[in-house]
Amino acid sequence: MSYVPDRSQYPARKADGTLDIDLTSGKYLKLWQGPNHPGITGNMSVELTVCGDEVVEGKTHVGYLHRGFEKLMERRTFIQCFPIVCRICVPEPDFNEYCYAAAVEELAGIQSPERADWIRTLILEMGRINSYMMYLGGQAGALGLGVIGQWTTYVRDLMLDRFEELTGARIYHMFILPGGVRDGLPDGFEKRMEETLREIESTMQDVYEVMFCNAVFKKRTIGVGVIDPSWLESYGVTGPNARAAGVAKDVRKDQPYLVYPQLDFEPVIGHDSDIYTRADVRRRDVLVSVDLVRQILAKMPRSGPLMATVPNVLHWKIPRGETYIRGECSRGEYGYYLVTDGSGYPRRVNVRGPSYTHAMALLERMIVNLNIADVAALMVSLHTYPPEIER
Amino acid sequence: MNELHTRLKNLFPLGELTEQRPDLSFVTVPQEHLRSLLLHLRDHEGFSHLILLTAVDWLEEGQFQLTYLLSNRGKAYDIGVRVMIPRDAATMHSIHEIWPTAATYQRELREMFGIDFPGSPRIEEEFILEGWNDIPPYRRDFDTLKYSDENYRQRPGRETRDPAQHMKQQLYPDGTT
């Protein structure tokens, strides 16, 4: 075999852009990865064309989870959409509730009370920690470090306990509604939250020592799956994936919402833009969120209204208009584009999940020349979630 | 925003402008000027990030609204560029050469709304639906219930009941009211 230094021309492409390969030659093989979970990326497939153990082309295929959420919302009243929006993202459902509620509030001219904004921020940071815990377990699991998943699942379960006592539910909370939030903090919540935060910090130290100082993990992730900083704008890369490439993109700082301007934090930055750096940025982001939860609990008002006056939701009509509400979720910029036509139903709801750009066009570009064994690790490192793609 | 709008208005035949928030505006542009406007916004005004591309079906007016939402990170400002295209000849220029990620949005719009983007990568390939045999499902005139009734059968015991009638039958099985 001869070494070809310029991999961009290997194999050649035909005039129509497809690869110039002969699958019957025995040199190339087509195989599918997924739609089973190849790590913790959810149900999506990558159609791989490989030469030996090297990927020469990868095409993503989605649609295994499509439930037509956006269409369903057009046939439901504004309040009836809440059980739908939170199901678009299992790891971080509250984010959808916040974005949708804030979009409805803006078009309807409703201002949520200050205390509700503090509780919303608390919930979003708790959700962010939950999401990162799922990610860290998945990233380690994709490279054979199963024990990390067990540890992170344990502390995520503690955080779900806090969610349960705050909202009455563990996964889908439906706690953030247009106008405010459903309730205040229960008695003793701060004390139990502090115990959970200490447990998370302790676990994160263990994760650091076992995962990030592990020679195998380092060898398989450092220098692998690099996102070139010049791709960030053209592929719409946001959040930790962009911050791992040295660009401080964080909606919480760039276009602050809720009570983030009153909190003291700095976006976590990495520079090498490989799988290891993306994982490390997220690990450090967990610690930032832990600190933010402490700040929120220390500063938030203990009394005051939790809900603004809203119209009777059964007869609620919103004037014609359109808006876009964004926020920083654990995977990057999340947003809701809402169009109303004066009726009691949304005219159009479009969900802009970060996975849409990260898991389709970007992954297809990054996967070329990768070793098959590293495909799952790369997919997890982008922290994508298929229901955001096929809402 | 007014400064930006004035600058753009000197170069392009812009239509209606809506200032939704201090950091978000929407502007309408004719179909044939979209590409040059997007290039100008990207290269000269700092709107280098395509947040999303989606469509709104204004069935009653016989039009699709395409919304290209762009962001200027440095100035923390967003602009939504609206393009109205006829519903019965829904074809639009592809912008995948300006933002590669737009190809994914365009594939979805072709499948879900039936809007064609000639020349866009993999535009002919199915995105989510397989073997679809009806009008594009996100169009307003697609009836989800009718399609479901025609193509799927109810599993015994899972029929939808009108709650009021169901309770009446449970409480008064002999038909007394």
Topology:
The complex is a heterodimer of chains A (391) and B (177).
Chain A: E1 28-33, E2 45-51, E3 54-61, H1 69-74, H2 82-85, H3 93-108, H4 114-141, H5 146-167, E4 176-177, E5 180-181, H6 189-212, H7 215-221, H8 231-234, H9 239-243, H10 251-254, H11 275-299, E6 321-329, E7 332-340, E8 346-352, H12 355-366, H13 375-381, H14 386-389
Chain B: H1 2-11, E1 17-21, E2 24-28, H2 34-44, E3 49-58, E4 63-72, E5 77-86, H3 102-113, H4 144-151, H5 163-171
Parallel strand pairs in B: 2-5
Antiparallel strand pairs in B: 1-2, 3-4, 4-5
Word description of this protein:
The complex is a heterodimer of chains A (391) and B (177). With 391 residues, chain A is α+β, with helices and mostly antiparallel strands. Chain A contains 14 helices and eight strands. In chain A, strands 1-2-3 form a three-stranded antiparallel beta sheet. In chain A, strands 6-7-8 form a three-stranded antiparallel beta sheet. The longest helix of chain A is centred in the N-terminal third of the chain and has 28 residues. Chain A is globular and about 70 Å long. The relative contact order of chain A is 0.18. The model of chain A has no long low-confidence stretch (mean pLDDT 89). The mean pLDDT of chain B is 88. Chain B is α+β, with helices and mostly antiparallel strands. In chain B, β3 and β4 form a beta hairpin. In chain B, strands 1-2-5-4-3 form a five-stranded mixed beta sheet, with helices on one face. Helices cover 28% and strands 23% of the residues of chain B. The radius of gyration of chain B is 23 Å and the shape is elongated. Chain B has five helices and five strands; from the N terminus they run αββαβββααα. Chains A and B meet through α1, β6, β7, β8 and α12 of A and β1, β3 and α3 of B.
